[in-house]
Design brief:
The complex is a heterodimer of chains A (400) and B (105). Helix content of chain A is 41%, strand content 12%. With 400 residues, chain A is an alpha/beta fold. Classes of the chains: A alpha/beta (400), B alpha+beta (105). Chains A and B meet through α10 of A and α2 and α3 of B.
Chain lengths: 400, 105
């Protein structure tokens, strides 16, 4: 360890605190993956014995995931990612309800949706002129239900989109109330459950549902799209006969099976895991503002995801913070502009009116330990203090 | 420079007339007593400059920050809310924005 690195009391690997980006593969998923690599490699559309065996595994996975998500098996399709599931949900639902005679229509989404939703909405706007209304949020990131109700009541509203919970700050969204308004207005509701699937029960009231296996301890490269039987949906891209004609291409049966096994395991463990992770998150939420001057914790304190906690430290560069934490053995993500894929700061934090610089999102994997959190809370204050000193030195002379 | 005091104990000093570029006047809004040029500086630098200099204007007076980092559009108002200073307004400039902040205490 370099002399400049702070004391890292956290054992190698246990400082991984970015489960909201990717939860490590669940042991049940790993076991299922190895079995399925052996038994499920063939084309499940073929009628020979190898194909039938793959088909059987795929059907089992579909039934299992459908049960966990509160869907019927024939409503569930597997995609290659959560993002692809969202794109197919948005484009397919809108195109099924668009008509040349009545114009390009209108789409409603909260301002804090995952970028997959916002990018699909923006694409529809550019390609077909669909109007897009983004619904504002309160200081905790919760969408305004009254504003949502007014927007879905607008003529020719084709689709409403609301996440189950926010992926950056953890606040649970008012899906039930919004679903009731959508039903009244006869507008289908897409619930992006990417952040919460496997962590919280799926809220009722969705017409379309999207999720990502990587977030619940399944492998990367598996997403889920569910479309209620009564919901109109039309394939937005060239289709083939796979996945109920909703997703083109050969499904990755082994990884889908692993995803299903991980989701079932998370469901079985949820009662025990939920309380343990909430206690650790509560500890971080209380300790950060106590130990770090000028730090602000974001997101609803109670009505929230069990594993995510987000805060911003004034006068600190987010990239420096993530880099220094990584050197100390802690892997976190950040919504600060310099860390994001784009040069723009997090649209979630901006919509909340929250500080976008010095931002850290800690998200606890199922293996998160009390020790790792203790070590993180010990490492953070000196790192923030050191970065502030450096930035102050760099700024000196700018303000004479 | 190591320990730069940002919160509270820095003694007030008179506004420097050469800093008062007055670009806020053109955009409408109260005339600033002091203008800080943070154009080309990434957040959090514009916020740090503001925190360093807010006590250089009298209570009730307005300080202007010029910045072009998109994060400043969110972070200037967020800083004002956290520190209980009044965020007066943001106005577009040919490049970036002019932000007006009134010192509240």
């Amino acid at each position: 360890m370099a002399a400049t690195a702070p004391t890292a009391t956290v054992p190698a690997g246990s400082g991984y605190l970015d489960a909201a980006s990717a939860e490590p593969l669940h042991p049940s998923g790993r076991e299922a993956l190895l079995t399925a690599l052996h038994d499920g490699w063939a084309d499940p559309a073929r009628l020979h014995r190898e194909g039938r065996r793959a088909r059987l595994l795929l059907d089992q996975a579909r039934e299992s995931v459908a049960a966990e998500l509160g869907a019927r098996p024939d409503e569930v399709s597997f995609t290659s990612s959560g993002t692809q599931a969202v794109h197919l949900a948005v484009l397919g639902a809108v195109q099924a309800r668009q008509s040349a005679a009545r114009g390009p229509g209108h789409l409603v989404a909260s301002a804090v949706e995952h970028s997959a939703v916002l990018n699909a909405a923006d694409w529809l706007h550019r390609v077909s002129g669909t109007a897009v209304t983004l619904i504002g949020v309160d200081r905790e990131g919760r969408a305004d239900t009254a504003e949502f109700a007014a927007a879905v009541g607008r003529d020719r509203t084709l689709l409403a989109c609301l996440q189950s919970a926010n992926h950056e700050v953890g606040t649970v969204q008012p899906v039930a109330a919004t679903a009731a308004e959508c039903e009244r207005a006869r507008v289908p509701l897409l619930v992006d459950a990417g952040a919460s699937a496997g962590r919280l029960p799926i809220p009722a009231g969705w017409a379309l549902l999207a999720a990502s296996a990587r977030k619940w301890g399944g492998p990367a490269g598996v997403g889920v799209l569910a479309v209620r039987r009564a919901t109109r949906w039309r394939e937005p891209f060239p289709a083939d006969d796979r996945e109920g004609r909703r997703v083109p291409g050969f499904p990755n049966v082994p990884e889908i099976l692993a995803a299903a096994a991980s989701l079932s395991a998370m469901g079985r463990e949820r009662a025990a895991l939920d309380g343990a992770l909430r206690a650790l998150v509560a500890r971080i939420r209380a300790a950060v503002p106590e130990r770090v001057p000028d730090a602000v914790v974001y997101g609803d304190p109670a009505d929230r995801l069990p594993h995510i906690v987000t805060f911003s430290c004034l006068y600190v560069d987010g990239e420096a913070l993530v880099t220094e934490l990584d050197r100390a053995g802690f892997s976190v993500s950040s919504g600060s502009a310099c860390v994001a894929d784009t040069r723009q700061p997090s649209h979630v934090l901006a919509a909340m009116g929250a500080l976008t610089h010095g931002n850290v999102r800690v998200s606890l994997p199922r293996s998160a330990s009390e020790n790792a959190v203790t070590a993180f809370l010990a490492a953070l204050p000196p790192i923030v203090a050191r970065i502030r000193q450096t930035v102050a030195a760099d700024t000196a002379g700018v303000t004479p | 420079m190591t320990q730069r005091q940002r919160r509270g104990t820095r003694p007030p000093s008179p506004a420097r007339p050469e800093d008062a570029a007055g670009s806020a006047a053109a955009a409408g809004g109260p005339p600033p007593s002091l203008t800080l040029d943070a154009l080309g500086r990434k957040c959090p630098i514009p916020i740090i400059m503001l925190a360093d200099r807010i006590r250089d204007v009298a209570i009730g007076q307005v300080i202007e920050v010029l910045a072009d980092d998109p994060a400043a559009k969110t972070d200037l108002p967020a800083w004002c809310a956290l520190k209980s200073h009044e965020f007066v307004r943001a106005a577009d400039l040919p490049v970036g924005w002019s932000f007006l902040v009134r010192r509240s205490y």
